[in-house]
Design a protein that fits this description.
Elements: H1 3-36, E1 39-45, E2 60-66, E3 114-122, E4 133-140, E5 143-157, E6 170-178, H2 179-191, E7 194-199, H3 213-218
Antiparallel strand pairs: 1-2, 3-6, 4-5, 4-7, 5-6
């Protein structure tokens, strides 16, 4: 066998072995992805953070990790800004609500599959506060309808004069909702003549604890 022919055979063998190795790596990667699930976004500390620090936007980074290793904590950066850490957090560590000094009672602020939707409505700022549960009534063309029932208030903020629509007390409330309800609220804010936020009594809670009315309205 000539030297040229031997070199060609060795080159062909190397190509075949390389293809087999690449196929094996791809198969192993696919199996690993199937085990750990798709990549999801989580919030992490962009650098080492001391206990008692009030979080700023620059303290928070977004990292993609396999769903299997992602916690079900806060996934909206805006809900972390301004809150204080109860413990020191190393760089790259996940930022969960249990690390904060004062978390809203009842578990994580935002769980996977939920959204934080802000809505401006007529209500008493003294009653519509973080942790309260409210009903949302939307009025259009002189017809009022119960849009959302028993939704949790995550946070509130003052309504600047430029954002107010008409007279009377108004509140900008961030609500814990589903994706469908968030879409409905966005549409309601555009077409509604008036939106009212009605606080529920502590003992007047839905048995499921889950808002459903808004989802029905979206599908109509």
């Amino acid at each position: 066998m000539s030297r040229r022919r031997r070199a060609a055979l060795l080159l062909g063998l190397a190509l075949v072995l390389g293809a087999l190795a690449a196929s094996d790596v791809a198969r192993r990667e696919a199996a690993l992805r199937e085990q750990v699930g798709p990549a999801v976004e989580v919030l992490v500390a962009s650098g080492p953070l001391a206990a008692g620090r009030r979080l700023e936007p620059g303290d928070i980074a977004v990292r993609r990790v396999p769903e299997r290793f992602a916690s079900a904590g806060i996934v909206v950066p805006e809900l972390l800004v301004g809150r204080r850490l109860a413990v020191a957090v190393p760089a790259g560590a996940p930022l969960d609500d249990h690390l904060l000094e004062r978390a809203v009672p009842g578990g994580p602020l935002i769980r996977r599959g939920e959204r934080a939707a802000e809505l401006v409505g007529r209500a008493s700022p003294e009653l519509v506060v973080a942790g309260a549960h409210i009903d949302v009534v939307v009025t259009r063309e002189r017809r009022a309808e119960l849009a959302l029932e028993d939704v949790e208030v995550l946070a509130t903020r003052p309504v600047p004069a430029a954002e107010r629509d008409g007279e009377g007390p108004q509140v900008a409330a961030t609500l814990r909702v589903t994706v469908a309800q968030a879409v409905y609220l966005a549409a309601a804010s555009a077409y509604a003549n008036e939106i009212r936020l009605l606080v529920r009594a502590p003992g007047d809670r839905r048995a499921t604890g889950r808002p459903t009315v808004g989802e029905d309205l979206v599908s109509r």
